[in-house]
Write a structure and sequence with these properties.
Elements: E1 2-3, E2 7-8, H1 13-76, H2 78-85, E3 92-101, E4 104-113, H3 130-214
Antiparallel strand pairs: 1-2, 3-4
Helix pairs in contact: 1-2, 1-3
């Protein structure tokens, strides 16, 4: 049967059963996607809190690092600090891994220490100060915290994209596909009822004709 709204639809009981089955499947998919979206939103806000705390931490570490560096410059002079910086070796190595959080793949930054704090100091103790040591320690701490922030911010962006994509799919099911399937099922059911009424009316007429012939 063809209609402007429903196109060509086979108004049969089998088609009605198939449509109802598709409605249940679409509703189940909608519920699962809605649960996923809610869980992603919870995860996103949790990570936002982690980023907020990490930013506070890195601000504190950098503040201590720069204050200690300024004191070291006052003790040994800025020129001496610049000279020492030229011989500073690499102490941290950054590698990446890919992690998956609820299907969202994101890089994880791993900071490995090439040189432990306090090991093989590259400058003479007599030519430096404890403030320079303190500055180096806190700059290293801040670098690790910055990598955590970078990792979390990248994950936040990917979660936001996934939430928007999931939301579009939820809305498509909720406002387009499921209403359309329900309308189709209602149309088929009403068509079958109309056909049954017509069949019943024909049977009544046939029965009346047969009874009239007998009389």
């Amino acid at each position: 049967m063809a209609t402007p709204e429903f196109g060509t639809i086979s108004a049969t009981r089998m088609e009605l059963l198939n449509t109802k089955s598709r409605i249940r499947l679409a509703q189940k998919g909608h519920d699962l996607l809605k649960e996923k979206m809610d869980a992603l939103v919870i995860e996103l806000y949790a990570i936002k809190d982690e980023v907020r705390e990490a930013r506070k931490q890195v601000e504190k570490e950098l503040r201590v690092a720069y204050q200690s560096l300024a004191k070291a410059e006052m003790i040994v002079g800025p020129d001496k600090i610049r000279d020492l910086a030229q011989y500073a070796p690499a102490v941290l190595e950054i590698t990446t891994q890919t992690v998956s959080i609820m299907g969202v793949r994101s890089p994880r930054f791993i900071v490995n220490e090439i040189q432990k704090e306090g090991e093989d100091v590259f400058y003479g103790l007599t030519s430096s100060s404890a403030q320079l040591d303190r500055s180096i320690v806190y700059f290293r701490k801040s670098l690790k915290t910055l990598m955590v922030i970078a990792e979390k911010m990248t994950l936040l962006e990917k979660l936001a994209v996934e939430i928007n994509k999931t939301k579009r799919r939820v809305n498509a099911l909720n406002y387009i596909l499921i209403p359309k399937l329900r309308a189709t099922a209602k149309f088929i059911a009403s068509t079958l009822e109309e056909q049954e009424r017509e069949t019943f009316s024909r049977l009544k007429r046939v029965k009346a004709i047969l009874e009239a012939k007998k009389q």
